[in-house]
Structure prediction request, 423 residues.
Amino acid sequence: MPEAPNTSALEELRSDPSSRKRFLRALGGGAAVSLAGALAACGGKKPAGNQIGGAGVASAQFGQGDAGIVNYALYLEYLEADFYRLAVASGNLRGRALGLAKRFGVEEQDHVVTLEGTVKALGGTPAARPKPAFTLSSPSLILTTMNQLESIGAAAYLGQLDRIKSKQVLAAALSIHSVEARHSAVISTMLGQPISPDGAFARPLTSVDVTAQIRPFVAG
Amino acid sequence: MDAQAETRGTTRAAFLARVALVTGALCGAGAVAPLVERTLAATGGGDEAILGFALTLERIEAAFYAKAVAVRGLSPAVKKALQEISAHEAAHVKQLTQTLQQLGASAPPAPKTSFPALAGEAAVLGLAITLEETGVGAYNGAAPRLQSDDYLDAFGSIVQVEARHAGALRELAGRNPAPAAFDRAFTGPQVLRAVRPFVRSGP
Prediction:
């Protein structure tokens, strides 16, 4: 698909002329704004519960409904963005690994900005940024953590897709989910692992499992 | 859709007209010429049509990789990747076929595929990337239109794997594995344009 016109959900939302979106456009950058269409939720799916990812853990932290799910995603993106920033700053990466860390870091930061804007647009308050606790003392430690974080990130998005009520929030989550998957595949193969560790069908993670798996990377 | 699609029985255009009908279901009415719509509307719509469309894409991908893995002169890393991906696409075809069967829905006709000469690794990777990017965009575009959460879960699971393929193949080709922070969602007509060169005819 070389140069298809960009008609992603995000782009469609960006060009939407509604006044609320114009207002949001004034608030932040392009990508953040584009998710403002999340406000125009169309069609409910699962009832809005106070649980994220199948159990009650962390729901109070992130909020309820789509705003809570987006906040949960934001929390993970904060962690990823901080990881790449610190990994690049550590000076322990070279060559292709350094190039990928820089590029992926920019993309995670784009996700952060967009999700912050979306949480606000949905009437929520962005999650508190976790204090990162990464061990970055060697290239192999960095790459191993990178592999874990991206794999967890992709599985975390996958675990929320059927819980999202707004079709537009869903479209946005999908557009980020597949980017996390790209990151994950590249680092996985760099470490000699399969393109898809789960095989032909990727497996989701609940927020409970995600919370447990990222605990080593969060201070306190 | 061009006029040819409305007049010939088993041409590529006619086959693609069937796909177009489904993509019409994906992206709303109006994308398909009225005569085509009248002729083929009996195929049904909704989730079954979306699943059928996904199956068509997966069949095209699977047919490609069956050829690609046999190309001579591939580096070990590329060959290994193509073999892994080929197995995934075959599994997607099998799963989608079974799902349609369980629904009592008829699978769409299998496309007769036609790929350009796969002369060398660069050509193989280039075409593979085109197909995977089409898959990512198609699933991301179609998933929000599904009614069933079960199928949404399945599409999410599959699109993650398609995106993994796209990222890994791009890296192997020396391209940026994730060219944008947000992947695009393709409309039906966009998917149709992307796969059209690889479909020779319907059955």
